[in-house]
Amino acid sequence: MNTFVGRKIAAFLSAISLIGLWVYSIVQWPDLPARIPSHFDFADNANRWVHKSILGWFDLPAIATILTLLLIWLFDSLIRRYPSLINFSNNKERRAFIALPRKQQENYFKRFTGLGLWTASIINSWFFFLQYGVFQVAVGRWSKLPSGWNLGFIGLLLIVVVILLVQINRNGTKLNQQPAYEIKEGNILYTKQEGQ
pLDDT tens digits, residue range 99-110? Predict the structure, then answer.
């Protein structure tokens, strides 16, 4: 999939799931009973209940918003500002990457942005389904959360992260295949890609 198209889809899904989480939470607020579940055990049974409150009901949307902003900042802004934070498999790849002109580095940055956006979209969707389940348990339609929801979202998150990291690593492997030469200026050794 084209990196640009993949990032656009991830951004769209992340935004829609986050907005959906907030809208759902706001719409269901008046119908909440006086007590709502706030924690579930490993068997997905509610094991802690709290009184209806803004903090108790809107905590998942607030956490999802903070995580989304943090992931976008971490995988886009921070990586662009400090490209040395990118974990390459060896120092040769790191030097080759840092020696690339900023325009050629952009492909890596876009892939990291995509990783952050896909991660945020999965977390936002997971939180949306959790909020839906909390409401269903609170109003008595369900006795507990459906088994496997959490494991399913964690599994999906791990699969997507692994796939995207493999794609990013393939780009790092390509760095080793590009011819390079080194320039020594004073005590500093620079690696330059041919054609720069």
Answer: 888 888 887 788
Per-residue buried b or exposed e for 126-158, using 16+ beta carbons within 10 Å of the residue's own CB: bbbbbbbbbbbbbeeebeebeeebbeebeeebe
Is 161:168 a contact under the CB 8 Å cutoff?
Answer: no
**Residue 127 in tokens:** 């939180």
**Cα(86)–Cα(112) distance, integer angstroms:** 9
pLDDT band for position 126 (50/70/90)? very high
Contacts of 11 (CB under 8 A, 6+ apart): 117
pLDDT digits (tens, 9 = 90+) for 56-67: 999 999 999 999
**SS3 letters across the chain:** CCHHHHHHHHHHHHHHHHHHHHHHHHHHHHHCCCEEEEEECCCCCEEEEEECCHHHHHHHHHHHHHHHHHHHHHHHHHHHHCHHHCCCCCHHHHHHHHHCCHHHHHHHHHHHHHHHHHHHHHHHHHHHHHHHHHHHHHCCCCCCCCCCHHHHHHHHHHHHHHHHHHHHHHHHHHHHHCCEEEEEECCEEEEEECCC
Q: Is the pLDDT of residue 181 over 70?
A: no
pTM reported for the whole predicted model: 0.81
181 or 188: which leads in pLDDT: 188
